[in-house]
Amino acid sequence: MKPSISKDKRYTLGAVLFLLILWEIVSRIVGAGILLPRPGETWKELVQIVGSEDFWPAVIGTTTRSLIGFSLTLFTAVLFAVTAGLWKPLYYLFAPLVVITKAAPPISIILLALIWLGTDKAPVLVGFLVIFPIIYTNIVAGVDNVDAKLIEMAAMYRIRRLRRLSEIYLPSIMPYVLAACSTALGLNLRVVIMAEVLSQPPISMGTSLQSARIFLNTAGVFAWTMVAIALAALFDYSVSFLRKKLEAWR
Amino acid sequence: MHKSLQVTNLTKEFNTTQGLNTLKVYEKFSLSIPENKVTCIMGPSGCGKTTLLNLVSGLLKPDAGELKGFDGKTVSYLFQEPRLLPWRTVWQNIDFVIKDIYPKRQREEIVSRYLKMVDLHDFSHYWPGRLSGGMKQRVSIARAFVFPSDMLLMDEPFKGLDLQLKISLLDSFTALWQQDLRTVIFVTHDFDEALYLGDHIYILSGLPANVNKSLAVTIPREERRYGEGKLKEQKEELLAGLCCRQEQPCVLAQAIS
Ligand SMILES: Nc1ncnc2c1ncn2[C@@H]1O[C@H](COP(=O)(O)OP(=O)(O)O)[C@@H](O)[C@H]1O
Ligand SMILES: [Mg+2]
């Protein structure tokens, strides 16, 4: 296993280098930094942004908004999905709501959230509305797939309900929760930034992106995008780390 | 007279092919299970042995008939498959069933003792996914025994284990069983196992199932040798008996043995 992983990494590195070179060539051909900044420019801008006074507050602000929204969503989704999985009336009550929020264009959700809430909280609500149906649907499927034979066994040994929940249902749905998390965490960050662009909280990554655009600082837009990608990668890495830890028994 | 649990006029049907047909597994079936004894149920595959255990344990409800004396009894059930929690270690899987019953100290002592009996003490921190089929089955045997039940149901638990391990488990079973003399219903395909452990043997055939033969094993446990001596004689007698009583007798005898 080990050597093939490092081989994988080498190929990835090669691909990244290739794309950088391609970027350099295309940007030279275009020849206008406003349309497509060169990698060097973007790098300079990135260094400047990271060094600027507002950088960490913006990153921390957006991360906090994103994580608070994510945790709230995860908690409510697990609660509702497990209840709906075990108690059908709630499942049927939720089914149309889930379909509607899944089908609604994210921009409608953003506009509604802006109408309902202030600039700081609207992005959190947007994230919630976008990722809740994803996590919820995943977990409901997980509850459906809990091994009935294990539940039978627990009933036979007169295991109390609460322990059946914590020792059979929760571990059974854990893979579904984690799979949903790895999609939803990154998606949530992207929608939160999108909502920030429109709602304009005083300090945030979305606000910074928008002001870079207004000043025709395309390199700045690129640089902030890279920061967002790095943040998403960090989130992704944390989830896979957690997954490895929690599913060591597999 | 010895107390027994009574199955009377039991009827159970299954819907098959999307409810178009029904399969009558039991029809006015009666059986008596002596308490604090080991009752063996034998019979060819598909004759309803697992269904009987499911009815007795309450997992299935009978369509008609009565199960007298089974109400409120706690049950340990050794299913045909081990049914271990894959995310719990061997130790935790056994501890799982007594967590609410004994304090921690006592549980540690109990789990440790039973793990030694099934020869898995060195594997207590393994996850089930890392064990062989036979080892998993041994964990589920230990789990069934640590649970202080009134009745123990066993559905071919020794199937697929090698002979030496099987005999040692049968012996640990006897030792464990003699401590508290639980009522045991033991489903098996194997004459040697039934004669070695049983006080009474029912041989079913069907469907619907009926008791084809009922016999007591009178040889004292101390004198029983697995598959040898008096047990071997009794087995041969039994097989011969099955062969001359029926129209298609040897099919049954072969199917079981
Ligand atoms: N849930 C079920 N639905 C339909 N048919 C079943 C069901 N359970 C068992 N059967 C049928 O009932 C018969 C008896 O099954 P079972 O009790 O498992 O037999 P045994 O354990 O003796 O091999 C079989 O023909 C089986 O196919
Ligand atoms: Mg069976």
Number of helices of chain A: 10
Percent of residues in helices of chain B comes to: 25-40%
What coarse outline of chain B follows from CA principal-axis ratios?
globular
Q: Indicate the radius of gyration of chain B in whole angstroms.
A: 19 Å
**Helix content bin of chain A:** over 70%
Q: Helix and strand succession of chain B?
A: EEEHEEHHHEHEHEEHH
Q: What percent of residues of chain B are in strands?
A: 15-25%
Structural overview:
The complex is a heterodimer of chains A (250) and B (257). Chain A has a single domain, classed as MetI-like fold. Helices cover 84% and strands 0% of the residues of chain A. Chain A contains 10 helices and no strands. Chain A has helices spanning 2-30, 39-51, 55-86, 88-103, 106-116, 122-144, 148-156, 161-199, 205-214, 218-246. In chain A, helix 3 packs across helix 9 (205-214), helix 5 (106-116) packs across helix 8 (161-199) and helix 8 (161-199) runs antiparallel to helix 10. In chain B, helix 3 (104-117) packs across helix 4 (133-146). In chain B, the strands form 2 sheets. In chain B, strands 5-6-7-3-8-9 form a 6-stranded mixed β-sheet, sandwiched between helices. Chain B has a 3-stranded antiparallel β-sheet with strand order 2-1-4, with no helix packed on it. The longest helix of chain B has 18 residues, at 163-180. Chain B has helices at 49-57, 90-95, 104-117, 133-146, 163-180, 191-197, 229-245, 249-256, and strands at 4-16, 21-34, 38-42, 64-68, 75-78, 151-155, 183-187, 200-205, 210-216. With 257 residues, chain B is an alpha/beta fold. The interface between A and B is medium-sized, with 17 and 21 residues. Adenosine-5'-diphosphate (ADP) is lined by residues 14, 16, 23, 25, 43, 45-51 of chain B.
